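Subject: Protein record for review, amino acid sequence with backbone structure tokens
Why sent: The fold of this protein is of interest and is recorded here as tokens.
Enclosed: The protein record, placed directly beneath this head.
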Amino acid sequence: MKKLLIILHDLGAGGAEKMMARLAGALVDAGNDVTLLLLTGGGLHAANLDPRVKKVELQSQRTARAVPALARFLRANRFDAQLAALTHVNVVAIAAAVLSGTLARLHVSERNAFSHDKHVNPDFMVRVAYLVAPLLYRLIPNPVICVSRGVAQDLVDTTLARRQDVTIADNPVLDNDFRDKSPGPPSHRWLLEKTGSVIVAVGRLVPQKGFDTLISAFAALPDSDARLIIFGEGPLRAQLLDQARTLGVADRFDLPGYTCEPLAEVAAADCFVLSSRFEGSPNALVEALSTGTPVVATRCPHGPQDILIGGLVAPLVPVDDPIALSQAVALQLSTPRDLQRHSRLDAATRFMNASAVQTYLAALLGSPSS
């Protein structure tokens, strides 16, 4: 049994937070003693954390101010490996590891396309973290764990990081028995009592997710009875609703907010769409594949091409091209639902907990065994 530590800012509603909570539980399943340390504390996904995972909250007011407390914790508690997630947390963890003398055991991870993600958060300290992180990645003893080949290549191509400074580990997105589990009934009324085709998307309402392109593509569909549901919350809610009204599809479009059971909603839909402008390894796409529901995705940097095997599993369309997206969705809606269902399920299998956790153990410990 190895003693492992995961360092995160909190367990908020983001995909990285969800995956780190899942990874903690999967590492316990693999026979390890796991602690999840939150630099601040709380968050939506705290309720879903495996009770066998030890949780520590430093309650720092800001992530950047957590360095002294984290250094004290690392000095007082010896772990076989320490894993930090997200760029600004990585920088804090590196500083604390240096102060505590534990840098040799620290591993950091990048969850998104670095060259795109660095422009998203305007916070000054986050911007500073993105500036200094590539230099630190070149200097630290362990390679940066990236969630996809594309994320790793992007880091090498656009920063000081070298190929030897990166490695890859898959997200633990799915339960090991996902093929045998029913996702349960959906909650949305359009999915409970369907009167026509229903298209579903899931994600934060932010520019990265390209939901404005999706709404334009939806408005261009020849099927005037189709409906579109986007599950998620974010700052673009009012803008997206205004766009739907302008395009005359407001009565067939809904933003019901965050859903705790996205698989149930996607499983009942006729098509799932990932319209993102960039990603790391989109977990929502993997979850959609696991339901067998037909999917369409943009060929965005850097996850869909890998997950969908270059378009063999499901259609890939150019980013910010509503006409191409509309045509691909229309094709999926007119194709028998079960066509390529097994291919979609097979593509999702790689991201089962048991499979993915071995890639992390190999990266953290140098061996796929615990």
User: Anything to note?
Assistant: Residues 124-139 form the longest helix (16 residues). The two ends are 6 Å apart (CA to CA). Residues 3-172+352-365 form a domain with the Rossmann fold fold (CATH 3.40.50.2000).
